[in-house]
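Worked example

This section walks through a single chain of length 563. The input is the sequence exactly as stored; nothing has been trimmed or padded.
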Amino acid sequence: MTTPLRAFGPLDQTRTGWQMAATALARPATALAAEGPDAMPVTMSNHTHAENWFELLTRPLWGLAAAGDAAPADLWDALAAALARALDPADDWYAGDFGDADQRCVEAAALAWALATVPELLWDRFGPKAKDDAVAWLSQSYKTGVVDNNWHWFPVFVGHGLDAVGAHRDPSIAAAHLDRIGEFHLGGGVFKDGPQGRVDYYNPFAFHTYALLHYRACGDDRFVEPAADFARTFRSWFAADGAAVPYGRSMGYRFAQGSLWGALAAADVEAVPWAEAAGFSRRLLQWWWDKPILTPDHRLTVGYGYPNDALVEQYLTAGSPWWAAKLFTGLLAPADHPYWLEEPAVPEPGTDANPAAAAVHVRDSGGNVTRLNGQSWRSKMRGGKDTYARLAYSSLTGFSHAVDGPGLEAAAPDGTLVLSEDGVHWRGREDAESCAIDWSGRLTVVWRPWEDVTVTSELHASEDGWHTRTHVVDTARTLHTGEGGWCVPRDGHEAAVANDRVAVVSRGIRSEALDDAGNREARLVWPMPGTHMYWPATVLPVLTGVLEPGRHVYRARFYAGRE
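Given that input, the structure is written out below as tokens.
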């Protein structure tokens, strides 16, 4: 049985309340991790059990370092004792030595940041041997090769930790990593996550959050203006109710989505009005506060809107979700900072087009955000086709993951067009031959699901909650087609189906699909349970048809909004 975050009590949106929330979130993880690796649950992961346990031990430090001495002494005592054993090569709990691109590099950055931020609470609790072990282990991490993407930030942060405790390091190593990070900048504050990387939440909860904390630590401002530029675009990713539109990998880190807003305050960089930054972060945490994402003993589960490890990538395990603690970075701003004093501002409807991210975000008059998307899939990531290559994503209704199996029920094609040769096995968009965005926010993406099939999809959203998809399909083969609108929860739904239109309502959310061209049939599909990011069971409006060889045009409108 799961429980929502409100099991910790009502969310107090003051700075003191956030310190309490950061501590409450960290305590169950720390209590379990302090029992040692054998107490750690065995969950799906491509990392070792020792690495998984070390995530559980260290990731809460992102929030605790910001909460500082508001977190009680016994919590810091437990962390220091467990870390002393984890960093001792002779101990059974030893976290392990480093190899290139080692997962431990990620956690080394969290430990180092805590040492750089609150050394009196952690470093001072270490005995002489533990201090020597910590320096030796972090020094090893500092010199280890990393994945060629946002990971270049981790040795930089390890450097800050070593500096804070007076340990020697070669500054040219961090300098080389910083130079490489600069090479990923596409302009306008947008960074690609590696040579073939995508533009996703790793911009706000990695590149820019780290850039601002790095600036706070040492005054190096080379990445401050890109962070500010991105923030001015990033405001369009959030709905008025607090939800961030889910898209891309690592959604299992949940409210880490909003860490950039607090990082701006921590660095005292006013990229957007402080009332806006405060509003985005506070509403986001409130949105998550009611989600059933805790175990009965109040640890974060693996999943998104509910526990489901089938919806996350192969590298997420039981300790991974505490990356969400990055949201509490704003606690590094003092109590008299405007970030804590300003009355949160509510975002207005509007459209933001970002060609570098191959995306258009539209916040409608109901406050919900639709993302029109031209990026391509991530082939190495489990579920990468669904997290990256659907045509549209929604803050109100989330999205689904296709699963192996026959029929549209397995394809679960919300927000996208899928095609089939036999009407049983389906494929959707993966790559894009081209993507263009015009001045009005209309996005056009060309994709080729087979060598002899080309689809040109034109997407346009409006502020009334509708968006339009027009597809020109050139095919040399007969194809069955299915195009989904937005899912709603299955329980208690009511639906109305006509020849070319279908509408369904559940829990106050209305979803409609309307075939403007009149050449498809409207129907309801019940996607496989456990495929959706928000709800365990859903129902989906779908338009279906059959195309003979030749050129065809599909045009339809899709709606999601609250009743």
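What to look for: The chain has two domains: 5-341, 350-562.
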